[in-house]
Amino acid sequence: MSVVSTVTVTVPATTANLGSGFDCIGAALALHNQFKFTLLKTTETKPEAVKITVTGAEAQLVDTGADNLLYQAFVKLYEHLGQTPPPVQIEIGLGVPLARGLGSSATAIIGGLVGANQLAGEPLGKTEVMKLAIALEGHPDNVVPALLGGCWLAARSSVNQPQADEKKPESWVICDVPWNSQIVPVVGVPNFELSTKEARGVLPASYGRDDVVFNIAHFGLLLRGLATGRGDWLRTALQDRIHQPYRKALIPGYDAVFSAALDAGAYGLVISGAGPTLLAMAAESQAAAVAKAMAASWQEAGIVAKVRPLALESQGTRTLTE
Question: What is the pTM of this model?
Fold first, then answer.
């Protein structure tokens, strides 16, 4: 077996929630971060553990020290194997906007774990890597599609796990969700950030029965709408009462962009992840018009936003070894 000294890992962006699917569904998008790991040859008795360089938009915002999330995930895999992580040089190429609700942290977690696993000789299978990623991220809705590609649903399993027993690890059931090829995600990324902590902070501590039933019904319809491409179903299914009514106040121009997207032919518009990115779903024939309308609406509000139709990323994380 040849020894791998360099591996390049390409990880897609993700969008989570999709309206009524709060904290349980996510999809990979054709927008990527790239991470190149090269083992450092050194004769030093105490070599530098990591050297990180970053290119791309917002590169100056990325930590280049040992606290970098990508490197922390890299180290975590070696710790899981009971090994000392080797000195490594990491080159980060940013293509996914930071803190915008497009899973940038998930790309780092998956990139670090997969890169380390490749350099260590692939001792872990994809399922084991996924479990480590979920543990690091705290939930599956971004890391699973980032690793596997496509659209995925995650549900906690409480079988043989009494709720009172907090020492047992979380168990998840992961299910693929069919996404009709006629549904085009249109992504609008504004030039401001919104932290997940802030977006979580505006949510109520509890919900009434009517709102819970509303979301259950709409999420069921969402799954059918995604599978069939039925626009009339998606128009209803993308409505939500759990997070979007509270979070939209944190996103300037939300109501105007929402109206502009629907007027241009979108089936609906949702907050991507915790925001502030907004994601519309449209037929292929309407996607360009929807993107143009969203960008114009934000511009009228004095906000610069990059809006474009994207494709669902079906392949997931890719690796190239040297």
Answer: 0.94
Determine phi and psi for 47, rounding to 5 degrees: -70, 155
* Distance of alpha carbon 110 from alpha carbon 70, whole angstroms: 8
Half-sphere exposure of 85 (CA within 13 A, CB side): 25
Evaluate the omega torsion of the peptide bond into residue 276 and state whether it is cis, within 30 degrees of 0: yes
Q: What is the Cα–Cα distance from 155 to 158, expressed in whole angstroms?
A: 10
150, containing H or E segment? none
Report long-range pairs for 20-24 (Cβ below 8 Å, ≥24 apart).
20/215, 20/218, 20/219, 20/221, 20/222, 20/237, 20/238, 20/239, 20/240, 20/242, 21/153, 21/219, 21/222, 22/215, 22/240, 22/242, 22/243, 23/139, 23/141, 24/141, 24/153, 24/154, 24/155, 24/219
- For residue 41, the model assigns a pLDDT of 84
Contacts of residue 61, defined as CB under 8 A and 6 or more positions apart, other chains included, come to 98
Dihedral sign, Cα of residue 55, residue 59, residue 62, residue 66 = positive
| Residue type at 10 in one-letter notation | T
Domains within the chain, CATH numbers bracketed: 6-176+313-321 (3.30.230.10), 183-309 (3.30.70.890)
CA 148 to CA 126: how far, in whole Å? 9
List, run by run, the mean pLDDT of 10-residue segments along the chain (322 residues).
84 97 97 97 75 95 96 98 96 96 97 98 96 95 98 85 52 95 97 90 96 98 98 97 96 96 98 96 98 97 96 97 92
Closest CA to 78 of 63, 64, 88, 68: 88
- At residue 212, φ and ψ (nearest 5 deg) are -65, -45
**pLDDT in the model for residue 159:** 62
What is the H or E stretch that residue 14 is in? Answer: strand 6-16
